[in-house]
Predict the structure.
Amino acid sequence: MQCSSGKINHLKSSIYGWNAIANTIHKIAQIFRVSYKLNWSQFNYLGLSVWIGPLKTKVWNNITDKMKNRLQQWGTTWLNLARRVILLKEVLSTIPSIISP
């Protein structure tokens, strides 16, 4: 059987159990030699915040802060209102959406 040459980064990888048997999650984590969490409310996956339950205000604050920083880097003072709206839409489209299971 062939498999890819990809390897698990044991320092960056974790298993998050949700509605799963604790013993099963523990065994899987041992097999892959990664950490695990059973009680969690939020974690990041490829830069995206994954939440259980309703989104918190601090999540939206993080997104708006990112958006403001990106807009400031562009130096928008010379743009008229229509161009600022277009730039705002572009910046927002580059920030990943939030996944809420």
Q: What stands out?
A: Residues 57-74 form the longest helix (18 residues). DSSP finds three helices and four strands in the chain. The longest strand covers residues 42-45.
